[in-house]
Amino acid sequence: MSHPRKELDDLLQHPVRLSIVGALSAAVEVEFAYLRDLLGVSDSVLSRQLSQLEKAGYVHVRKGYVGKRPRTWLSLTELGREVLDRHTRALQEIVNLSGERQSRGLEDAST
Protein backbone atom coordinates (compact mmCIF):
# COMPACT_ATOMS: atom_id res chain seq x y z
CA MET A 1 0.00 0.00 0.00
CA SER A 2 1.35 3.41 -0.98
CA HIS A 3 1.22 6.16 1.63
CA PRO A 4 -1.27 8.94 0.80
CA ARG A 5 1.44 11.61 1.16
CA LYS A 6 2.61 10.59 -2.32
CA GLU A 7 -0.63 12.09 -3.68
CA LEU A 8 0.11 15.53 -2.18
CA ASP A 9 0.86 18.21 -4.76
CA ASP A 10 4.15 20.04 -4.19
CA LEU A 11 2.77 23.40 -5.34
CA LEU A 12 -0.10 23.18 -2.88
CA GLN A 13 2.23 22.57 0.06
CA HIS A 14 2.67 26.35 0.28
CA PRO A 15 -0.06 27.81 2.53
CA VAL A 16 -0.79 30.83 0.31
CA ARG A 17 -1.08 28.72 -2.85
CA LEU A 18 -3.36 26.25 -1.05
CA SER A 19 -5.44 29.18 0.20
CA ILE A 20 -5.69 30.59 -3.33
CA VAL A 21 -6.97 27.40 -4.91
CA GLY A 22 -9.27 26.77 -1.96
CA ALA A 23 -10.84 30.20 -2.34
CA LEU A 24 -11.09 29.91 -6.12
CA SER A 25 -12.73 26.49 -5.87
CA ALA A 26 -15.76 28.10 -4.25
CA ALA A 27 -16.37 30.60 -7.07
CA VAL A 28 -16.58 30.83 -10.83
CA GLU A 29 -14.30 33.86 -10.92
CA VAL A 30 -12.73 36.15 -8.29
CA GLU A 31 -11.27 39.62 -8.63
CA PHE A 32 -7.60 39.97 -7.67
CA ALA A 33 -8.22 42.67 -5.03
CA TYR A 34 -10.98 40.63 -3.37
CA LEU A 35 -8.74 37.55 -3.16
CA ARG A 36 -5.82 39.62 -1.84
CA ASP A 37 -7.99 41.02 0.94
CA LEU A 38 -9.60 37.65 1.69
CA LEU A 39 -6.19 36.00 2.12
CA GLY A 40 -4.61 38.95 3.91
CA VAL A 41 -1.54 39.11 1.68
CA SER A 42 0.15 41.87 -0.28
CA ASP A 43 -0.24 42.40 -4.03
CA SER A 44 3.31 41.15 -4.62
CA VAL A 45 2.86 37.97 -2.58
CA LEU A 46 -0.40 37.15 -4.33
CA SER A 47 1.06 37.93 -7.77
CA ARG A 48 4.11 35.73 -7.17
CA GLN A 49 2.04 32.77 -5.99
CA LEU A 50 -0.52 33.19 -8.78
CA SER A 51 2.27 33.16 -11.36
CA GLN A 52 3.39 29.74 -10.17
CA LEU A 53 -0.15 28.38 -10.19
CA GLU A 54 -0.84 29.84 -13.63
CA LYS A 55 2.38 28.38 -15.02
CA ALA A 56 1.32 24.94 -13.73
CA GLY A 57 -2.07 25.34 -15.39
CA TYR A 58 -4.03 25.41 -12.13
CA VAL A 59 -5.29 28.99 -12.40
CA HIS A 60 -6.58 31.07 -15.30
CA VAL A 61 -5.87 34.82 -15.22
CA ARG A 62 -8.10 37.18 -17.19
CA LYS A 63 -7.29 40.87 -17.49
CA GLY A 64 -9.68 43.60 -18.53
CA TYR A 65 -11.12 46.95 -17.59
CA VAL A 66 -14.01 48.25 -15.56
CA GLY A 67 -14.45 51.70 -17.00
CA LYS A 68 -10.90 52.98 -17.35
CA ARG A 69 -9.53 50.99 -14.44
CA PRO A 70 -7.60 47.78 -15.11
CA ARG A 71 -8.85 44.66 -13.34
CA THR A 72 -7.65 41.09 -13.02
CA TRP A 73 -10.00 38.14 -12.55
CA LEU A 74 -8.93 34.68 -11.48
CA SER A 75 -10.50 31.27 -11.85
CA LEU A 76 -9.52 27.71 -11.08
CA THR A 77 -8.98 25.52 -14.14
CA GLU A 78 -10.32 21.99 -14.42
CA LEU A 79 -6.78 20.73 -13.78
CA GLY A 80 -6.57 22.95 -10.71
CA ARG A 81 -9.82 21.49 -9.38
CA GLU A 82 -8.60 17.94 -9.96
CA VAL A 83 -5.28 18.62 -8.23
CA LEU A 84 -7.00 20.30 -5.27
CA ASP A 85 -9.42 17.37 -4.93
CA ARG A 86 -6.57 14.84 -5.00
CA HIS A 87 -4.52 16.91 -2.55
CA THR A 88 -7.36 17.32 -0.04
CA ARG A 89 -8.27 13.61 -0.29
CA ALA A 90 -4.66 12.74 0.49
CA LEU A 91 -4.62 15.10 3.48
CA GLN A 92 -7.84 13.52 4.77
CA GLU A 93 -6.41 10.02 4.35
CA ILE A 94 -3.29 11.04 6.27
CA VAL A 95 -5.44 12.38 9.11
CA ASN A 96 -7.56 9.21 9.05
CA LEU A 97 -4.46 7.00 9.22
CA SER A 98 -3.25 8.92 12.24
CA GLY A 99 -6.62 8.52 13.93
CA GLU A 100 -6.67 4.80 13.17
CA ARG A 101 -3.26 4.35 14.79
CA GLN A 102 -4.42 6.12 17.93
CA SER A 103 -7.69 4.20 18.13
CA ARG A 104 -5.82 0.89 17.88
CA GLY A 105 -3.50 1.98 20.67
CA LEU A 106 -0.38 1.88 18.54
CA GLU A 107 2.57 3.82 19.84
CA ASP A 108 3.84 6.79 17.94
CA ALA A 109 7.03 5.87 16.07
CA SER A 110 8.76 8.98 17.47
CA THR A 111 8.55 7.70 21.08
Mean pLDDT: 92
CATH C-level name: Mainly Alpha
The residue fraction in helices comes out at: 40-55%
Q: What's the shape?
A: elongated
Fraction of residues in β-strands: 15-25%
Structure description:
- This protein is elongated.
- Strand 2 (59-66) and strand 3 (69-76) form a beta hairpin.
- It has 4 helices and 3 strands; from the N terminus they run H-E-H-H-E-E-H.
- It is of the alpha+beta class.
- The protein has helices spanning 15-25, 32-39, 43-55, 78-103; strands spanning 30-31, 59-66, 69-76.
- It has one domain: Orthogonal Bundle (Arc Repressor Mutant, subunit A), CATH 1.10.10.10.
- The longest helix is centred in the C-terminal third of the chain and has 26 residues, at 78-103.
- It has a 3-stranded antiparallel β-sheet with strand order 1-3-2.
- The two termini are 24 Å apart.
- The model has no long low-confidence stretch (mean pLDDT 92).
Descriptive labels:
single chain; 111 residues; Arc Repressor Mutant, subunit A; 3 strands; elongated
Structure summary:
The protein is α+β, with helices and mostly antiparallel strands and 111 residues long. The chain has four helices and three strands, in the order αβααββα.
Per-chain topology:
Elements: H1 15-25, E1 30-31, H2 32-39, H3 43-55, E2 59-66, E3 69-76, H4 78-103
Antiparallel strand pairs: 1-3, 2-3
